[in-house]
Predict the structure.
Amino acid sequence: MSELRLDFYHDVLCVWCFLASARLRHIIKDYPQVQVVHHAFALAPEPNSIARMFGDAESGKEEIMGHWAAAASQPDGEAINVELMRSRTFPYPYSMPGLLACKAAEMQGGMPAHWDMFDRVQQAHAVEARNIVDPAVLKDCAVEIGLDVARWEVDFASPAAKQAVEADLREAEQWGVNAVPTLIFNQRWILPGAVPESTLRQIVENLLEGKDPSAK
């Protein structure tokens, strides 16, 4: 079997990415020759993005909670805590602080650290319903995954972290990525959406065996 590159475009706000990440974790345990490359994709890059997209912040949160409920209804979505987030009084978060946190982790520990930080921030968001715009919450995540926190704080606030997110967004545009999760296999086959683990597993197996996953 050959090796396989899998580019994973995701956002910390996206509960479907929460499911996709866990499914990929399961798959790479069986297929260590799969290299997962993480890319930031900001669904709501600025503090006012939700209000601008949905008319006002409250309507936006209610619409998003519908997506949470749909994800939570999946067989592997039971950890997503819709009612706890619905009860929170802070504005629904925007993307950039969490994405910068992931890039700062990557600057310290490469793609494994990016993935660990992404998963921990998503857990804080989707399971614990914490405010992932709050730097203290993100710092807690950095502590919990074992980063050098002093270094992480410097990188989090650095122009380099912001530039790394912006570079990912430019790449996403070049690939035509406009939603997350999106997976790109071997920099050729694009798969948008949170597809079932069984489907992902079959695609990975086919590609590792040299089969074209788009062939009928």
